[in-house]
Specification:
Layout lengths: L14 E3 L38 E11 L5 E5 L9 E12 L8 E6 L2 E7 L10 E7 L4 H4 L3 E6 L5 E3 L2 E3 L3 E11 L12 E5 L7 E3 L6 E5 L5 E12 L28 E6 L2 E7 L28 E4 L4 H4 L5 E8 L5 E11 L7 E7 L8 E9 L4 E22 L2 E21 L6 E20 L2 E10 L2 E9 L5 E19 L2 E19 L4 E15 L4 E9 L2 E9 L3
Antiparallel strand pairs: 1-9, 2-11, 3-8, 4-7, 4-11, 5-6, 5-8, 9-10, 12-20, 13-20, 14-19, 15-18, 15-20, 16-17, 16-19, 21-23, 22-23, 23-24, 24-25, 25-26, 25-27, 26-28, 27-28, 28-29, 29-30, 30-31, 31-32
Length: 568
C-alpha cells in the first residue's frame, strides 16, 4: 500500500555522507500575504493577534542548519526591557528547505525541556526551495520565560546517499519570542504558575512503540495547587504514520496494511490510575500518500500541531498533598510508533500556602474496549480480498474532585463522551499488488463538560471536538503496465465552545479547519493530473470575533485567496 509514502528510517539503511562543501543557504522569510502563483507552503489559519504595546523580541537562533540527527542547543535570557507581566508572548519561526530531494521531517523546539513548538516540514523539489512561517501563542508558558534557560531545536534530517539516492535538502530555521508588556488596554492574563515538561528520557518527545510504553514525569508540586492542565501532542510516526489505514492483525497481510486496527487513543495516568483521555488527530505530512496533494497547501495543522488540553483539575487536591506523584502518557494500540510530548500547567492559590482536597469520583476505565466488525471475502479466481472493516470505541466517564482554598471549597467535575469510528472499504490483491483500493471514513468526537462549583456559584464550560477524515485511495496497474494512483482527501477539525454561568451562556465560539485535496499520479511517467487543493479556516464568537479565509490551488501553485470577514 501507499506506493509514494514518506516512510523513511535512516537507522535501517547504509548512509554515505555528502562532501562538507555541499552548498548551504540562508533562511528565506516567507511573505505574510499569500502570493498567487507561488508554490511556497501556505495555510488559511490566522496569525496570532497582537496587543497594542511595543514588544521586546528575543531571537532564539538564526539561520540554523539541520542536516543531521543531532539536536542543536541554544541559550535564552529574559528580555531586560520587558520584564513582565506580559499581555502576550508569541513564538515565531521561519523555515527554508534547500531545493533538491528530501523527506518531510518532524520539527520540535524546547525551552527548559518544555515544548514551545511542534510540527513537520515541507518537502522541496529539484527546482523549488520552499519557505514558510509559523507562529503560536505561548503566553501560558510564561513561567519558563522568566529565567535563563537552555533550549533545544530538533529537526532530525539526513543529508547523504541512501540506496543510490541522494537526499540533499537542508532545512534552515530562524526562531524568536515576542514579549508584549501589559497595559491598561491589554492587561496580563492569568497564566500557570508552574510549567512541568513531560517528555522522554532525552528531555524531548518520547517514543511509544506499544500500548504499554509510557513517557512519565515525577512531580513534587507546591502544596497550594488549585487547578491543573496537561497539553498533549501524540504524533503518528513510522508504522503508525497512516494509522487510519491499519486493520486487525489477522487481515494485515491480506490487505497490505499495518496492524492493531485503526483505533489509537492517548491515555493519561496519575500514579498509575486513569486520569484523562486525549484523542489522536490524523495528521498527514507533506510527503504523505502523494506529495502533490499538499503543495502548496498542506493538510490541517501539518506545519504546526495543536496540542490537546486535558483538564486534570479534579486531581489538584491530590497533587497538593506534599508527596511525589507521577504523570504518565501512553497511546492505546501504538504499533511502532508514536512520539509524545506534553506540558503540565499548574495554577496556584496565590492567597493560600496550602490547600487540601481529593478525588471524589473517577469512572474512567484503564483502557478502552473497541469493537471490530470484519466483512472481508477472498476471491480465489482473482486473488483479491474485498469487503469492509469497521472499528468503533465509545467511552463515557466522570471525574470529580475538590480543593479547600483561601476563597472556599472548589469542586470540579469533568464529564466526557469520547467516540471513535473508522470504516474501511477494500479491494486488494496482496500477491500481484496490481490492485489496492482502500477507502477510509474516520471520525473522533469528544463532548466535554467541565462544571466548577464555588459555594452557590456554578460555571460550566462545554467543548465539542470532531476530527472527520474521508480518504479514498486507489493504486492499480493498467494493461500497459503503468502504475497509477488516485487519491482524494477531505480532512476537518471542528471545535465549538460554550461557557455558562448559572446555566446562562455568556460566551460561545466555533472553529472550523478543512482541507480538501485530490490528485492522480502515474508513477511510470511521473506525471500528475487533476491536481487541486483547497483549505478553509473559519472562526466566530459571541463577542463579535470573526475570521474566514479560503485558499485554493491547482497544479502545485496557489490560485485563489478568499476572505469572508474582517480579520482581527
Amino acid at each position: 500500500m501507499l506506493k509514494n509514502a514518506s516512510l523513511f528510517l535512516a537507522s535501517a539503511v547504509v548512509l554515505t555522507a555528502l562532501p562538507a562543501s555541499f552548498a548551504r543557504a540562508q533562511v528565506v522569510i516567507a511573505p505574510s500575504t499569500p502570493q498567487i502563483g507561488s508554490s511556497n507552503p501556505v495555510t488559511a489559519a490566522p496569525l496570532v493577534s497582537r496587543p497594542s504595546t511595543k514588544p521586546c523580541i528575543v531571537p532564539l537562533f538564526t539561520d540554523l542548519a539541520f542536516d543531521n540527527f543531532t539536536p542543536a542547543t541554544f541559550n535564552y535570557a529574559p528580555p531586560s526591557d520587558c520584564r513582565g507581566p506580559w499581555a502576550k508572548v508569541v513564538f515565531t519561526a521561519d523555515f527554508t528547505v534547500s531545493e533538491g530531494r528530501q523527506f518531510d521531517r518532524t520539527a520540535s523546539f524546547y525551552l527548559g525541556h518544555a515544548s514551545i513548538y511542534y510540527g513537520t516540514t515541507a518537502e522541496p523539489r529539484a527546482a523549488l526551495s520552499p519557505s514558510w512561517h509559523v507562529e503560536r501563542d505561548v503566553t501560558d508558558l510564561s513561567a519558563i520565560f522568566k529565567s535563563d534557560q537552555t533550549g533545544e531545536a530538533n529537526i532530525g534530517n539526513f543529508v547523504g546517499v541512501s540506496d543510490g539516492v541522494t537526499y540533499n535538502g537542508i532545512i534552515y530555521a530562524n526562531a524568536a519570542l515576542e514579549f508584549y508588556p501589559a497595559s491598561w488596554r491589554d492587561p496580563a492574563p492569568a497564566v500557570p504558575d508552574v510549567v512541568v515538561p513531560v517528555n522522554g528520557s532525552g528531555g524531548d518527545a518520547g517514543t511509544l512503540n506499544t500500548t504499554t510504553d509510557t513517557i512519565s514525569q515525577t512531580l513534587n508540586l507546591p502544596e497550594n495547587v488549585e487547578s491543573v492542565y496537561l497539553d498533549v501532542i501524540a504524533q503518528n510516526q513510522s508504522g503508525d504514520e497512516f494509522f487510519y489505514f491499519c486493520v486487525p492483525n489477522d487481515q494485515a497481510n491480506n490487505l497490505l496494511s499495518c496492524g492493531n486496527t485503526p483505533f489509537r487513543e492517548t491515555e493519561i495516568a496519575i500514579d498509575g490510575k486513569p486520569a484523562g483521555v486525549a484523542p489522536v488527530y490524523p495528521w498527514i505530512f507533506t510527503g504523505g500518500i502523494d506529495t502533490a496533494l499538499w503543495e502548496p497547501i498542506p493538510g490541517n495543522q501539518t506545519l504546526d500541531f495543536k496540542p490537546y488540553r486535558v483538564n486534570l483539575t479534579p486531581f489538584a487536591g491530590l497533587l497538593s498533598d506534599g508527596n511525589a506523584h507521577t504523570v504518565a502518557i501512553s497511546v492505546f494500540n501504538a504499533n511502532s510508533y508514536f512520539l509524545a510530548t506534553a506540558n503540565l500547567l499548574v495554577y496556584e492559590d496565590h492567597n493560600g500556602r496550602k490547600v487540601t482536597g481529593g478525588v471524589m469520583e473517577n469512572t474512567l476505565s484503564a483502557a478502552p474496549d473497541p469493537t471490530v466488525d470484519e466483512n472481508i471475502a477472498f476471491n480465489s479466481k482473482t486473488g483479491e480480498y474485498t469487503g469492509t472493516i469497521s472499528v468503533g470505541s465509545k467511552r463515557s466517564f466522570a471525574i470529580k474532585g475538590y480543593v479547600n482554598t483561601s476563597h472556599g471549597r472548589v469542586e470540579t467535575t469533568v464529564q466526557q463522551n469520547v467516540n471513535f469510528i473508522n470504516t474501511q472499504e477494500f479491494d486488494v490483491n496482496p500477491v500481484t499488488e496490481a490492485q489496492d483500493l482502500q477507502n477510509v471514513q474516520q471520525n473522533t468526537t469528544v463532548d466535554s463538560y467541565v462544571t466548577t462549583r464555588i459555594g452557590l456559584f456554578t460555571r460550566t464550560s462545554e467543548e465539542h471536538f470532531a476530527y472527520p477524515l474521508n480518504l479514498n485511495y486507489h493504486f492499480w496497474i493498467d494493461a500497459s503496465g503503468n502504475e497509477l494512483q488516485n487519491t482524494s482527501v477531505d480532512q476537518k477539525f471542528t471545535l465549538t465552545k460554550v461557557d455558562r454561568f448559572f446555566g446562562i451562556p455568556d460566551f460561545a465560539s466555533s472553529t472550523l479547519e478543512e482541507t480538501k485535496a485530490q490528485d492522480d499520479v502515474n508513477f511510470s511517467t511521473g506525471a500528475t493530473s487533476n491536481n487541486a487543493t483547497s483549505q478553509t479556516y473559519q472562526y466566530e464568537d459571541s463577542r463579535g470575533g470573526c475570521y474566514s479565509e479560503t485558499l485554493t490551488a491547482t497544479n502545485k501553485a496557489l490560485t485563489g485567496v478568499s476572505k469572508g470577514c474582517k480579520h482581527e
